[in-house]
Amino acid sequence: MELDNKLFQTYSLDQTVEKQTEKLKAISNRYERDKKFWSTAVNNIEEKIKMMKQEHSQLSLEAHECANSIPDLNKMVFAVQALVSQCEDLKAKYSEEQAKRRKLYNQVQEAKGNIRVFCRCRPLSKAEVSAGCATIVDFDAAKDGELGILSGGSAKKTFKFDRVYTPKDDQVDVFMDASAMVISVLDGYNVCIFAYGQTGTGKTFTMEGTEQNRGVNYRTLEELFRISKERSETFSYNISVSVLEVYNEQIRDLLAASPTSKKLEIRQASEGFHHVPGIVEAKVETTKEVWSVLQAGSSARAVGSNNVNEHSSRSHCMLCIMVRAKNLMNGECTKSKLWLVDLAGSERLAKTDVQGDRLKEAQNINRSLSALGDVISALATKSSHIPYRNSKLTHLLQDSLGGDSKTLMFVQISPSEQDLSETLSSLNFATRVRGVELGPAKKQIDTSELQKMKVMLDRARLDSRAKDDSLRKLEESLQNFENKARGKDQLYKTQQEKIKELEGQLELKMALHSQLEKQLLHFSERLKGREEICTSLQQKVKELENKLRERELLESSTDQQKVKDLEKKLREQVRGSESHSITLQHKVGELERKLKEKENNSESLLLQKIKELEDKLKEQEQQLACALTVDSTASVRGTPLEGRCFVRDELMNEAEHHILRSSNSMNRPRSQGSISLKGNDSLHDTRRKRLSRNGETENNNIIVSTSVIDNKGRQSDPPKPFVRVTRTAKPVTNAQRPFTHNRTSRDQVQGIKEKDNKKRIWSR
Ligand SMILES: Nc1ncnc2c1ncn2[C@@H]1O[C@H](COP(=O)(O)OP(=O)(O)OP(=O)(O)O)[C@@H](O)[C@H]1O
C-alpha cells in the first residue's frame, strides 16, 4: 500500500511536474516569441524613430527653406510676370526688327541689283599648260570685281562684275558670297543661281563640285539646314528637292525610280507658281540625305550616255529646292523655290562642223540659251512680255528669273588664249545680264495659308489666355506651397508627438520585457527545483520497485513451495479417502444385506406393534371423542371450532410421528446407525477438518451436495446465493462424489420406503 501510495504520489507528482514543465515550456516559448517580437518591434521602432528624426530634420529644413523662400517666390513670380511681359514685348520688337532687317536687306540687295553676276575663272588645265597656252585674263582688279581680258597684244578689255574669282579662289570663297542670296529663299523669295559658260570652264565644278570640294548645290542646302535650325524657334521649314534635266528640250526627272516615256510638262498651279506635275520631290532633312539625293541625280544624268562629260555639257542640270516656311511668331507661311542650274556648254558651234543628233543637240542648247538671253533682254528693257515659254529652261525658271525673284549668275570662263572668243562672248552675255535692273523682290506669300494664319492668330490668343491661366495657376501653386509648408509644420508637430508617444510605449515595453525576463528566471529556478524533486522521486521509485520485485520474488517462491506441500498432502488425503470409501462401500453393501434380513424379521414384530398402536389409537380416539364432548360444552363458552380441529390434527400428527419415529427407530439403528458411527463420522470428521481449514461450515457442504444434484440425479445450476459455496466446494475430490450421490439416493430410497410404510399403516 505504501508503495502504491508512493507510486501514486510519484505518478501524480510526475503528472504535475509534466504539466508544470509543459506550462514552463509554453511560457518559455511564449517568452521567446514575445522576446523576438518585442526585440524586432523595438528595432523597428528604433529605425522608425531614426527615420522620423531624419524626416523631421529634413522637414524642418524644408519648412525653414519654404518659409525663407516665400518672399523669394513672390519675387520670382513678379519677375516671371515681368519676364513674360518683357518676352511679349521682345517678341513684338523682334518681329518688327525682323521685318525691318528683311526690308533693309532687300534694299541692299536691290541696291546691288536683284540680278547679280559673279565671274569665275578656272585655272589652266594640265593639257593647256603642257600646250603652252597663255593666260588672257587679268585679275589685278579682281577684288573690285574687275576683270581684264588681254585680247591680242594691244588692248585690254575690262569687265565689271559683282565678284570676280581667280583660279586661286576655292569653293568656300565662292559660296560665301552666294550664301546671302541663298538665305533669301528661307525668307520666302524665289531665287535662281545658274552657271553659264563654255564647256569645260568649271560650271559643274562650281555647282556640284567634287566630294572633297563640294559645290554651291551641296553648300546651299547645308546652309539652308543650318539657318533653318537656327530659326527653329521662330520658323518651321519643310525642304524638298527635285532634280531635273533638260536635254533636247525635254524634261527628265533624275530622281524618278524608273525612266518613263511620258513627257514631263510645266504647269502653272497659281499666280507666280509653276511646277512640273509628277516629278519627285525628295524631302531632305539632313545634309547626308542631300548628298545622296545629289549623287542619285548625278548618276541618273549619266545613264544612257557614252561620254558623261559630253552629255553633261549638252544638257541643263536643274536642281529645284522647294522651301515651305512658317513663321511661328506671326503664322506667316511662304512657299519659295531656289533653282540651282548647271547650264549646258554655251560655245557656238559652226553649222558645218556638226551634223545629225549633235547638230540637233547644239541647236537646242543654242535655242535655250538664246531664250535665256531674250528673257534677260526683255527684263533689261522692262518689256511687258517676257518670253519665258520659248524654251523649257526659261519656262522652268519663270518664277525665279527676274520679276519678283533674285538671280545670281556664275559666268565661268577659261583663262586660255585658245578660248578667248568664247570667253569674250560669255563675258558679254554676263555683262548684259548684270545690266538688267529688276524691281524689288516680292515675298512669295502662300495665300492658301491665310486661313491657317487666322487660325494661328486665334491659337496665339488662346495661348496668351492659357499663359494667363498658367500664371494664375502659378500663383495658386505658390499659395498651395505656402499651405503645404504650413501643413508640413503641422505634420512636424504631430510627428514629434508621435515620437514622444512611441518613446513612452518603448519604455513600457522595455519594462515589460525586463519583467518577463525576471519571471522567466523565477520559473526556470522553480523548474530546476521541480526537476531535482522529480529526479529524487524517480530514484525512490526505482528503489521501491527493486524492493517490490525482490519481495515478489521471495513471496512467489514461498507460495509455490506451500502450494506444492498442500498438493502433496491433498493427494495423500485423496488417496486415503479413496481407500476408505472403498471399504465403506463394502460395509454399506453388507449392512444393506443385513438390513434386508432384519426387515424380513422385523415385519412380524411390526405388525404386532401396529396392532398395539391401533389399539392405543382407538383408545386415544375414544378419549378424544370424550374430550370432544367436553369441548362442545366449552364451545358454548366461546372456544372456536377451528381450535378443536387443530387439536385433533395435532393429535393425529403426533400419533403419526410416533408411528414414524417408532418405525425409524426400528429401522435406523440397523441401517444408518452403523454408518453414522463409523463411516459418516469419519467422513464428517475429515470434511469438518477440511472445512474448518477452508473456513466453511458443514451445513454448507450438505447444501452443496443437495443443491448440485437434484432428486432425479441431474446436475442443476447452483442457486445464486450459494455461488461462493460452490466455489469453495470445488476442492471436493471425485472420490467423495460417489459417496454423497449414494447417500442421497439411499435417503431417497429410504424416504420412499417410509412413505410406503406410512401408506401401508394408514391403509391398515
Ligand atoms: N576653279 C577650278 N579649280 C580647279 N579645277 C577646276 C575649276 N573649274 C573647273 N575645273 C576643272 O576643269 C574641268 C572641267 O570642269 P567642268 O566639268 O566643271 O566644266 P563644265 O563647264 O561643267 O563642262 P561641261 O559644260 O562639259 O559640263 C574639270 O576637270 C574641273 O575639275
Give a nutshell description of this structure:
One of its GO terms (biological process) is microtubule-based movement. The chain is α/β, with parallel strands linked by helices and 764 residues long. The chain has helices spanning 2-112, 126-131, 171-186, 203-207, 216-230, 287-302, 308-314, 356-380, 392-396, 420-434, 450-636, 641-671, 673-694, 698-708, 723-729, 736-763; strands spanning 115-121, 137-138, 146-151, 155-160, 163-165, 191-197, 235-247, 250-253, 267-270, 273-275, 282-283, 316-327, 333-342, 406-413.
Can you tell me about this structure?
Belongs to the TRAFAC class myosin-kinesin ATPase superfamily. Kinesin family. KIN-14 subfamily. This is Kinesin-like protein. The longest helix is centred in the last third of the chain and has 187 residues, at 450-636. This protein is an alpha/beta fold. α5 runs antiparallel to α6 (287-302). Helix content is 66%, strand content 11%. The chain has 16 helices and 14 strands. Among the domains are: 115-439, Kinesin; 679-764, no CATH class. Strands 1, 5, 6, 7, 8, 11, 12, 13 and 14 form a 9-stranded mixed sheet that branches. It has a 3-stranded antiparallel sheet with strand order 2-3-4, covered by helices on one side. The protein has a two-stranded antiparallel sheet with strand order 9-10. Adenosine-5'-triphosphate is lined by residues 122-123, 167, 197, 199-205, 309, 312-313, 345, 412.
